[in-house]
Amino acid sequence: MTTVREVRLKRRPVGMPQLGDFDVAEAPLAAPGEGEVAVKNLFLSVDPYMRGRMYDRPSYVPPFELGKVMQGGAIGQVTASHDPKFSVGDIVSSMFGWRDAYVAKGEHIQKIETHGLPPQAFLGAAGMPGMTAYFGLLEVADGCKPGETVFVSAATGAVGQIVCQIAKLKGATVVGSAGGAEKVAYLKEIGCDEAIDYRAGDINSALAKAAPKGIDVYFDNVGGDHLAAAMNAARPFARFAECGMIAQYNNEEPAPGPANMALIVGKRLKIRGFIVSDFAARQSEFAKDMAAWISSGQIKTRDTVDEGVDAMPGAFLKLFTGGNFGKMLVKV
Amino acid sequence: MTTVREVRLKRRPVGMPQLGDFDVAEAPLAAPGEGEVAVKNLFLSVDPYMRGRMYDRPSYVPPFELGKVMQGGAIGQVTASHDPKFSVGDIVSSMFGWRDAYVAKGEHIQKIETHGLPPQAFLGAAGMPGMTAYFGLLEVADGCKPGETVFVSAATGAVGQIVCQIAKLKGATVVGSAGGAEKVAYLKEIGCDEAIDYRAGDINSALAKAAPKGIDVYFDNVGGDHLAAAMNAARPFARFAECGMIAQYNNEEPAPGPANMALIVGKRLKIRGFIVSDFAARQSEFAKDMAAWISSGQIKTRDTVDEGVDAMPGAFLKLFTGGNFGKMLVKV
Fold first, then answer.
1. Chain A neighbours among B 198-227 (CB < 8 Å)?
2. Residue B227 has pLDDT above 90, yes or no
């Protein structure tokens, strides 16, 4: 019997989450039994969708339970195995994050062939955020082609930075928005044609200036003012991939929606929400393309990495204050 | 030289249109020249989309011009023809409404084979509103099938009553909403499984009660509270055909949108705006199906018919006060 350090949900956040909403504690960890595997986590993920699971309400995934260890994406290495499909040293992906080690049945974890990529890539560009970007742009928004303009919000985020680069690979003109001069500079670095600092002024007029002929695709990570601005800037038949609305996740009261909803009719907008797991059966298409793009240097990534399980609550909070740059990770 | 009676746009309405926004006047009408046809109008159409054309702003159709005769759908009969494709007595469809007679080039009017239907049907179920219902439900909302629930707002309107009946023909459960007991009774008469009187209480709780398992399709003619209620009631992957948002057409200030926009992501809603003319190339598919459905009595319609060109402004205003029942027409 050893002990692990883990993060538990102490109380359901009201509005913006706080450090005090979490407990960091030690828990006993039994040795793996028959069919089980022991894993030491290497990298832990924090993601905006986790905020939704902190509410006690029906959704597409059940809410986190109070007093229980949090769940989340993690990349680890097998330290002991009683499942013939896993060997010591294997790199595995799981949802057993927010802790430094765990024991699980082999069927609940996935072995990863890294093909030379660093293991943390499988929490970012080569993992769930990359797959979200890939299917969101190429399927939900019906792709994009040369001559079209793609607008991406939260464009330096884990998902956004990949969307921008896939859109460029497909030949589109790309407009990204992010908060602050450093992020705007990074957007230019990864190939965005126009980069908007949404903190520097009104997003609506900034987008109108950045895309004077309008936009054909909007990849929405933000909702709120960004969504309203995208509807104003949309060309007829524009496609919106609704990936997230981080602007709203911490609202204590429901915030009013865009005041320009009637544009959906006149402009024939197609606005479609999605969840990456809807495309789980097509994971291999994504894995093949993305591995090639990363290996060839066509897709670059930038992460923010904090250290130690105790840093998880703080890392999570950074998602809502813009404190992260690209994928937010914790190295165990 | 004869004279015609015609309705002109006197000033652009602010908020709810008023009778004083229109002028009814006489104008000279020359005899038809080479390639021209003289037509006496039989029925004139008023439609909600006309409100949008009264604003001076860019849209999918140019704004109406001040001081000029209004345009709109009309069914008439040829009284003289200098175009070999038209004969005296032919029934024709045109956009030369809001007047009792006109002269036009043959290429600007369409001859109608009525197949035994009354001519005014081609301004309703067999015309633009019917075609809007048909392609909106069957294409934009991806159709509907037995076991699915379809929610229709403004369900006794010219478009709504056809949507309800096509959805029933396809085997769906249909929930319609309309204002007042008489309209609710009519919805039951045309086969709606549940009918909501939105004036009798909160649309959100009424819809939750009428469709306890949720809705798969929303055909939106109203926007506003109806749209928000439909998002709350939507099942995962529900499809929304955005046909109109009459609740908003007369707003002097933009009204806030639904406060539950984030549901688009979690429920993977597909919300798609459309304009019937987008499907112009497929008119014959619609004409064939609808003629069969009307002839067989599978689709019934109810119209409101006022009389005389002078009644046009008043007939138009009824669209926004619920004063019409089904298709709003004026018999010349």
1. 223, 227
2. yes
Nearest to B51 by CA among A231, A214, A265, A232: A265
Q: Give the closest-approach CA distance of A38 to chain B in angstroms.
A: 33
CB-CB contact of A264 with A108 (8 Å):
no
Q: Is A315 helix (H, G, I), strand (E, B) or coil?
A: helix
Chain B touched by A270 (CB under 8 Å): yes
The answer to whether B276 and B128 have CB atoms below 8 angstroms apart is: yes
Quote the minimal CA–CA distance from A111 to chain B in Å: 28
The three-state (H, E, C) secondary structure of chain B, written as one string: CEEEEEEEECCCCCCCCCHHHEEEEEEEECCCCCCEEEEEEEEEECCCHHHHHCCCCCCCCCCCCCCCECCECEEEEEEEECCCCCCCCCEEEECECCECEEEEEHHHCEECCCCCCCHHHHHCCCCHHHHHHHHHHHHHCCCCCCCCEEEECCCCECCHHHHHHHHHHCCCEEEEEECCHHHHHHHHHCCCCEEEEHHHCCHHHHHHHHCCCCEEEEEECCCHHHHHHHHHHEEEEEEEEECCCHHHCCCCCCCCECCCCCHHHHCCCEEEECCHHHHHHHHHHHHHHHHHHHHCCCCCCCEEEEECHHHHHHHHHHHHHCCCCEEEEEEC
Chain A residues within 8 A of B244 when measuring between CB atoms? 265
- Which residue is it, tokens 């495309």? A279
Checking if the pLDDT of B94 tops 80, the result is yes
Confidence of residue A36 (pLDDT cuts 50, 70, 90): very high
Task: Determine the pLDDT at residue B24.
Answer: 96
pTM for the whole thing?
Answer: 0.91
pLDDT for residue A247 is more than 80 = no
B283-295 helix and B128-135 helix, angle to the nearest 10 degrees: 100
Say yes or no to pLDDT of B93 above 90: yes
Largest Cα–Cα distance in chain B?
Answer: 65
Q: Which residues of A touch B60 (CB under 8 A)?
A: 236, 266-267
Q: Alpha-carbon distance B10 to B19, whole Å? A: 10
Is the pLDDT at A145 greater than 80? The verdict is: yes
- What is the least distance, in Å, from the CA of A302 to any CA of chain B? 26
Beta carbons within 10 angstroms of residue A196's beta carbon: 26
ipTM of predicted assembly, 2 dp? 0.90
What does the alpha-carbon distance between residue A247 and residue B139 come to, in Å, rounded to a whole number?
33
